[in-house]
Amino acid sequence: MLFSDIETSVADGRPFRLYLFERGATRWAYTNADHDIDFQATRWQAIAIADDGLRVTGETSANQLTLTLPDDLEVVRMFRGVAPSEEIWLTVRDSHFGLPDDPASAAVVWVGSARAIRRPEPGKAEIVCNSLSASMGNDGLRLSFERNCPHSLYDGQCRVARETYKIPCAITSMDGAQVTVNTTLANIYTGGVIEWRTGFYTERRGIEAQTVSTLALLGGTAGLDIGLEVSLFPGCDQTSATCNGRFANMLNYGGFRHMPGKSPFDGEPIY
């Protein structure tokens, strides 16, 4: 019997729902069934998980999906303190007991990403997820006419080779807001990035300020430990002097250095 036949039947259905969270190569598979399920070479763990229903409306905010689940799961713990720097994707599938182990037996009913965590009571957490269509409805960034470069450092428009400027080091001390590393650094890391591996995924945090080998981090030092090996990437203040002197990247500089100092739109007559 096909999924569509059971789904549209009056009394043949024995439904269950599959929830797959993904962060890079790491996956967490859960089901609201009363026992673990093996499906498509994946073991789906049976937990007390539920959602507030799937909606399709004209408002992207109304299409949010809220999951209720135990607060001791790893996917929940990642939101304690500083939110993860990488997207955590969620795919929801519906299926029925008795169907074959085939992709067509579990229909994808919702795709999106986890946005925030709420803890309404001890032992319980709520994950608020935005649908994929919500991200498509956001306004995109537009290039502007300005002296400074509008590109993000290391992106496809900037084209600076990120790995070329990578500096490996280790944390020797930290105080909750900043870390000190075991390498003497040039004064180029304000606005840069600190990166480290946590389990099977990579965590990143912005560098707010630098004093020699001490770095103040956006979001503090949660998740870091003394002795942890990290990588540092220099920052950029979006000026032509930094672009040329630090990265030798003037061919890709996106600003307009020779803009006139007086705007033609300030209301004063031009003679």
Which structural traits does this protein have?
globular; nine-stranded mixed beta sheet; 15 strands; Pnp Oxidase, Chain A; Thrombin, subunit H; mainly beta; 2 domains; 271 residues; single chain
Walk me through this protein's architecture.
- It is a single chain.
- The protein has 271 residues and is mainly β.
- It has two domains: 12-136, Pnp Oxidase, Chain A (Roll); 162-252, Thrombin, subunit H.
- It has helices at 3-7, 74-77, 132-136, 240-247; strands at residues 15-23, 26-31, 37-39, 42-46, 50-51, 65-70, 89-96, 107-121, 124-131, 167-174, 178-181, 193-198, 201-211, 214-217, 229-233.
- A nine-stranded mixed β-sheet has the order 3-4-2-1-7-8-9-6-5.
- A hairpin with a 2-residue loop joins strand 1 and strand 2.
- The longest helix is centred in the last third of the chain and has 8 residues, at 240-247.
- The N and C termini lie far apart (81 Å).
Brief summary:
The protein is mainly beta and 271 residues long. The protein has helices at 3-7, 74-77, 132-136, 240-247; strands spanning 15-23, 26-31, 37-39, 42-46, 50-51, 65-70, 89-96, 107-121, 124-131, 167-174, 178-181, 193-198, 201-211, 214-217, 229-233. Strands 3-4-2-1-7-8-9-6-5 form a nine-stranded mixed beta sheet.
